[in-house]
Every structure is written in structure tokens, then in C-alpha cells.
Amino acid sequence: MRDPxxxxxRAISRIPPLPIxxxxxxxxxxxxxxxxxxxxxxxxxxKALFDGDPGVRRVADxxxxxxxxxxxxxxxxxxxxxxxxxxxAFRRLCTEQFGIPAESLDGVIExxxxxxxxxxxxxxxxxxxxxxxxxxxxxxxxxxLLAKADRHLAEREMRLLAxxxxxxxxxxxxxxxxxx
Length: 180
Fold this sequence. Notes:
Elements: H1 9-13, H2 33-51, H3 54-61, H4 63-77, H5 84-96, H6 105-118, H7 121-126, H8 133-148, H9 155-167
């Protein structure tokens, strides 16, 4: 028995093809110098909408950066709360040290929340084991900076930092801010 919801293939094949609409091309005109800039900005925003935020994409495409930001975010949450001082320090690190645009940070944090469900702290730290010692030191310095951002060093923050030092083969002095 034929399914009454199924269409008749012969009837569908007799439908003429729809004309393809042509999109007009806009060219910059000497009298409209700013219009190409505006159009490019619009295209960039549309591309970001369809391709995703470039800051989030940068983090997602760099395993070491993803791992570091995840560990830093976990340091913020180690004492059981994410306070304003720690989040401000995290955002400053992201923009100043990692070059992530400020407007991308909410998306990056959302990415880290999703990524964090699939990644343990040990897995994130393992990304750093083979990196140069200065890169490993930078990670633990950043972790220490966030741990102290709220002017209170909680026991769980100290344990997380101690675990990072152990796994990365570093000493407590390596977590001290660089002088110079």
C-alpha cells in the first residue's frame, strides 16, 4: 500500500526549476569611499556569525591555550566561588597576555564551560608537560595570580597550584612573579 504522505515523483519532476536570483555586486565608488569599509564591516560581522567568534575559534584551535585557560578558570572556581576580582583578573590575562578580544570573552568562557566537562585537570596539565620550562612557569604564575586576585588564598587553590607544580616538574619559586 502506498503511503498517502509520499509525493508523486513524476509530478515533482515536472516542476520547473526556480530561477537563481542574482546578487548585485557593489563596487567602491570614489564618491562613496566609506561605503566599502561599512560593507566590509558588515561582511566581517556576518562571517563571524556564521563561522563563530574569532576569539573563541582561536582558543578552540589551540590545545595549549585551551588547556591553560581551562586551568585558569578552574583556579577561579577552586575556592567554590567566582568573585568579581578573580573574573576581572582572568579577563585582563585573556586580553593582555593571550590577545583575546574583550568582546570574545563571554564566548570563550562559555567554550571553557563546555570544554571543561570533557577535560580533566590532569589532561589539561598533560598538554604542558612537554612545553618549554618558561611556558610552564608562565602557566603557574598565571594560576598564582588568579588564586591571589581576591586577596585570599584558599586551601583548594593551594592544592591545585601544588598539583600543577608537581605535574609540570616545577618548584614553588617558579610560581613567583617574574622580576625584571
